[in-house]
Amino acid sequence: MRKVFVTALCMCALIATAQNNSADSKMDRFINDLMKNMTIEEKIGQLNLPSSGDITTGQAQSSNVSDKIRQGIVGGLFNIKGVEKIREVQRIAVEESRLGIPLLFGMDVIHGYETAFPIPLGLSASWNMEAIEQAARIAATEASADGICWTFSPMVDISRDPRWGRVSEGNGEDPFLGGEIAKAMVRGYQGTGTEKYKANNSIMACVKHYALYGAGEAGRDYNTVDMSRIRMYNEYLYPYKAAIEAGVGSVMASFNEVDGVPATANKWLMTDVLRDQWGFNGFVVTDYTGILEMVDHGIGDLQTVSGRSLKAGIDMDMVSEGFLSTLKKSLDEGLVSQKDIDQGCRRILEAKYQLGLFADPYKYCDVNRAKKEIYSDEHRAAARKIASESFVLLKNEANTLPLKKKGTIAVVGPLGNTASNMPGTWSVAVDLTKPATLVEGLKSVAGKDVDVLYAKGSNLTEDAALEARATLFGRELNRDNSTDDQLRKEALAIAAKADVIVAALGESSEFSGESSSRTTLGIPDVQQLLLKELVKTGKPVVLVLFTGRPLTLTWEQANVPAILNVWFGGTEAAYAIGDVLFGDVNPSGKLTMTFPQNVGQIPLYYNHKNTGRPLKEGAWFEKFRSNYLDVTNDALYPFGYGLSYTNFTYSDLKLNTTELTKDGEIIARVTVSNTGKVDGAEVVQLYIRDLVGSVTRPVRELKGFEKVMIKAGESKTVHFKITPELLKFYNYDLDYVNEPGEFEVMIGGNSRDVQKTKFILK
């Protein structure tokens, strides 16, 4: 029976391969025939991706972009919102240009479309790959219903520096977790296997920013990156590679330089690694004006950098129009070849073919879908549930939480009564009037027996100019012109009437995100003063922390009874926060970035390496060891950390064998018990340390995780499979190897508090 089954599987695989080969051959014939009829200008035009400027309905016919579309010198557009607008522009492309080649329509659908999910850093804190894939699937459904067929997501840049504002858009500091999330999002956007791109609610993903964008010096956006290749391969490149392995259709080049050459002109990065080593066969697009910006990098004029980009492996030029304006001249002068241009053109046409746009240019232009499938009740319910899984309970002294659904609650703080800040940064398609405020969300969840009062208490920050920079794109907090003292007094008067105080403090949504780097990471000045006054009242204070990055919360951890980090939870955040605060949902989020005690510790990350003079475990200071005079080496909250309304204990860590052969496996088992009084979900985390290597190895690396629901009083045994493949790394020669020797296994609820045992790889 087994032989028949295996034979059947082999036959299915052969049939699938034959079908794929047949489909590829058909696509090749179609594109070959099309390209034979294209002029050089039309081929270069396919490489051009201008911004639409969001053409209004009825304006497409007379716009400058429409003239270029008719000439066949536009390959795609981005920043158009609305299926009727997109249909009108697509009609011009297929009915009024010479060859009728359809356009790609892209948008930054980063963490949802009109239904927004938590910012990616918050979404990663759920550690729930099914939920993350579902969020991407819903985002694809809504975006495609509005005419979009291409998203500039997922962003998978590893970062260990929370000063960088774009940590909010990534998945934290760990490559293994980042890779799992990358694969989940690609599956969610594109579909899988034979269903990939098949339906009109699957869109093409674009993994970004390739590569190393999260490692900019000083945490400053767009800044220089310089690191060894062994570090690139072992610590930063894997999430991009994981997206490639998942079949992502496109890749976006990063702004930064790599080995002294901007990524957008870096042939080693774009061809040697991406295509030759990893086997990527999709297309590569620049980031916004990425080609033009290389002039300021200092590697040539626009013609030079455009030619270098094309020859490096860039296929599509976003906004710079360097390809459009210089490649014909460079071809005539022999600086680029016809083959270089044809290669890029072919990749863009292949993407359009794979999406089904040649078969049906209006595949994503069904106006009836938009009415039913965008911001639906079903999608909002999913967003609310997923948001509640992303929140991280950082402290809960004396069981301050959950709150009771009775009495009076004072919501105090500048983030307590804002709708526009709830979705978070890079939620470009959201109607900012639709989300509920925190006050509204708490009233809805609490019910009629709770009186919810509100006072602003302070502005976002004392500095009006800084607040203006941190509330762009319609995210205003309506700055109050009262004095700081007046605002605090008003808040304290409201707090005096309450049984418990919910302090809605932290960052505004645009205090993090692109071009939002910070040098200080505390809760801003006047908000801290307000919080200290609220704590002095002696009433229970719950800090509901809004943030797009790790903050320095040393005082808050020492003095505030309860802290719930809610990131920016999307359009349904207010209700989800209410669900968790009142105990309808037990928080289960875990941090995916380390929270430092202060900025001076940065970069601080769990999977660091030892020095030759490591500080002894549990020690604070020892002379001539790697430590600080004024603070411990420890994180305030370590990677993987997060509390629950119940308690979990770990015991009985066992391996089925302590020797692993090259073709064998080890099963690690641990018992996790819910010793509290309520059901809860725990993220069980597996870490491994290679104790001796030919090159230095991290003190621990995440190698597995499982989110497990455990009822009160119940115990579950969680299993992890350890294989030789899981132990591989890049050695000094960049060979991907595992090395025989001793390994330490660590399993726990975060990267710090673990059970340990060992095994040997033979």
Strand order of the largest sheet: 11-16-15-14-12-13
- Write down the CATH class of the domain at 380-593: Alpha Beta
- What is the makeup of the main sheet? 6 strands, mixed
Mean pLDDT: 95
The low-confidence runs, each spanning 5 or more residues with pLDDT under 50, are 1-16
The CATH topology of the domain at 380-593: Rossmann fold
State the helical fraction. Answer: 25-40%
- Percent range for β-strand residues: 15-25%
CATH architecture classification of the domain at 380-593: 3-Layer(aba) Sandwich
Structure description:
The protein has 762 residues and is of the alpha/beta class. Among the domains are: 1-35; 38-107, no CATH class; 380-593, Rossmann fold (3-Layer(aba) Sandwich), CATH 3.40.50.1700; 647-761, Immunoglobulin-like, CATH 2.60.40. The strands form eight sheets. It has a six-stranded mixed beta sheet, sandwiched between helices. Strands 18-26-25-20-21 form a five-stranded mixed beta sheet, with no helix packed on it. Strands 2-3-4 form a three-stranded parallel beta sheet, with no helix packed on it. Helix 21 links the parallel strand 15 (541-546) and strand 16 (562-565). Helix 2 (40-46) crosses helix 14 (338-354), helix 6 runs parallel beside helix 7 (175-190) and helix 12 (302-312) packs across helix 13 (322-332). The model is unreliable at 1-16 (pLDDT under 50).
Question: What is the topology?
Answer:
Elements: H1 2-36, H2 40-46, E1 48-49, H3 64-70, E2 76-78, H4 83-96, E3 104-107, H5 120-124, H6 129-145, E4 150-151, H7 175-190, E5 206-210, H8 229-236, H9 238-245, E6 250-253, E7 257-258, E8 261-262, H10 267-277, E9 283-285, H11 294-297, H12 302-312, E10 317-318, H13 322-332, H14 338-354, H15 367-373, H16 377-390, E11 392-396, E12 407-412, H17 438-446, E13 450-455, H18 464-469, H19 484-495, E14 500-506, H20 525-536, E15 541-546, H21 554-559, E16 562-565, H22 573-581, E17 648-655, E18 659-660, E19 666-674, E20 680-690, E21 701-710, E22 715-722, E23 729-730, E24 736-737, E25 741-748, E26 754-761
